[in-house]
Write a structure and sequence with these properties.
Helix content: 25-40%
Distance between the termini: 38 Å
Shape: globular
Number of strands: 5
Number of helices: 5
Order of helices and strands: EHEHHEHHEE
């Protein structure tokens, strides 16, 4: 059941200032031991199984790494803290019927990513999209967007989280989020 119309929110490039492309580290790490609540989406009416989600997420990882290799960049690996942060955001957008970088709890990407334990003082960014049913579709739309593409090709990123979900009760149906970081999480 494919909905028409593809939608993107300008990729949140947290590292590149508007004037020029000079990366910088952004955001402050959360103080260890500080309490940040994470709302779960057990009530989300997911309309597809986790096998489909995992297959499309894997396809996206293959695409982005092939693209990065073509540009002379190192591949990204899935990070065990960025992955749940990205998945949570895609589910939050579907459950709460919105598209954006500020989640339904009012958190920006830095606070949300830190809430999932990725609180390193390193490079970070996020891409979000809605309406694209496949990894190929969302990859193409992000590739054609200057800001999203810049995030995908940032040489300072080494790790990624890929979130993908669907809800027939939401406006766009399909929701994607990718979180990027410059340091691999410790287990």
């Amino acid at each position: 059941m494919k909905k028409s119309g593809l939608h993107l929110v300008v990729g949140l490039l947290l590292l590149v200032p508007a004037a020029g492309c000079h990366p910088r580290m952004a955001g402050k790490p959360v103080t260890p031991g500080s309490n940040i609540s994470i709302q779960r989406h057990a009530d989300l009416p997911i309309q597809f199984n986790s096998k489909i989600r995992d297959q499309e997420s894997d396809r996206f990882l293959v695409r982005i790494n092939k693209y990065r290799k073509q540009k002379g960049l190192k591949p990204l690996t899935v990070d065990n803290k960025l992955q749940p942060a990205a998945q949570w955001l895609s589910e939050d957008m579907a459950a709460k019927n919105y598209l954006g970088h500020r989640d339904s709890m009012g958190r920006d990407p830095f606070k949300r990513i830190a809430a999932f334990g990725y609180n390193y003082n390193t490079y970070k960014a996020e891409n979000v999209a809605a309406g694209q049913e496949t990894a190929a579709e969302v990859f193409k739309s992000w590739q054609e967007s200057k800001t999203h593409n810049t995030n995908m090709l940032n040489p300072y990123f080494t790790v990624i989280g890929i979130g993908f979900t669907y809800s027939k009760k939401s406006r766009y149906g399909w929701y994607w989020a990718t979180t990027f970081g410059g340091q691999k999480s410790k287990k």
